[in-house]
Design goal:
By secondary structure, the protein is of the alpha/beta class. The protein has a single domain, classed as Alpha/Beta hydrolase fold, catalytic domain (Rossmann fold, 3-Layer(aba) Sandwich), CATH 3.40.50. The protein has nine helices and eight strands. The longest helix has 38 residues.
Length: 290
């Protein structure tokens, strides 16, 4: 397997894996990790090596995480003080804003022409960044994989509330102003509308080229409900069918998969088998649509 190169481009730390065979039209795939495992550049590079996909693979570090980590204590403080406005939105928004300059810098570094195909992979919070990219950017992304993602900001906040309420007595001692439910403000309400991807599904299908989107989700995902990702998939499915390209949208469900994607954890053999199969499915999707 080609070795990883450690880089910082346009201010963003990343790991870069070259293809075995290189030319100026070789695809470039960009990966975003999440807040949980994989939650850094090295983790997602290990989980999704995709060694049989002939493409440059760039594993980007999200703001506040990976090589730009602010530390567990500061992340927890941000989460408890205002999960949306101090943690999730700043990370996702900055990641999306950084992406065009990262792509330009990588095309120059890898000697790729401007028409080289682009792929995008997002896990969990990184998947929300990928969805926001699809809804708002003009980048010519041809193929996308969204793993362990959800349909909107409200669903992400519901996950935060479940975590907070399950440990409220302990957390409230450390964070005295903590409320058991998230308190929406005018600013976070604006973010909620912006990150409602069911409502913005039309913007996604109006992109040129029409992105080939694969959703990957586990039945046992304890962070984001399968029902929510199915709702987003179904909203997009109607429009992909109307455009006569239903084959460019897919949802793959894994019976034993939890939220984390980590072969080194104490997961069951069935969960580990699902994780191995996911890498194959993701590789096949990118090989078909890049």
């Amino acid at each position: 397997m080609p070795s990883l190169e450690t880089l910082k481009v346009a201010g963003v730390p990343l790991l870069l894996r070259p293809p075995a065979n290189r030319d100026r039209h070789t695809p470039l795939i960009l990966f975003w990790h999440g807040f949980g495992s994989p939650n850094g550049e090295a983790d997602i590079a290990e989980a999704f090596a995709l060694e049989h996909v002939e493409a440059w693979k760039a594993y980007l570090g999200l703001p506040l995480f990976g090589q730009r980590s602010v530390g567990v204590e500061d992340l927890m403080r941000r989460q408890m003080e205002d999960y949306v406005l101090q943690l999730l939105l700043p990370v996702v928004e900055q990641a999306v804003e950084e992406l065009p300059e990262v792509i330009e810098a990588l095309r120059s570094h890898c000697d790729l022409d401007r028409n080289s195909p682009l792929g995008l992979f997002g896990f969990s919070a990184g998947g929300l960044a990928a969805l926001l990219t699809l809804a708002e950017s003009h980048l010519p992304i041809q193929s996308v994989v969204l793993t362990g993602v959800t349909k909107d900001l409200s669903a992400a906040v519901a996950t935060y509330e479940r975590f907070t309420q399950s440990s409220y007595e302990m957390l409230s001692e450390q964070y005295p102003g903590l409320k058991p439910e998230y308190e929406w403000s005018e600013e976070s309400e604006t973010a909620r509308n912006r990150l409602d991807f069911v409502a913005h599904s039309k913007e996604i299908v109006q992109r040129d080229p029409l992105p080939a989107i694969l959703f990957v989700h586990g039945v046992q995902d304890e962070a984001f409900n399968l029902d929510d990702v199915e709702a987003l998939h179904d909203a997009l499915k109607i429009q992909y069918q109307q455009l006569s390209h239903p084959e460019r949208l897919s949802l793959r469900v894994f019976q034993h998969l939890r939220h984390a994607i980590d072969l080194t954890s104490n997961s069951s053999p069935e969960q580990q088998a699902d994780i191995v199969e996911i890498e194959r499915v993701v590789a096949d999707w990118f090989k078909q649509y890049l």
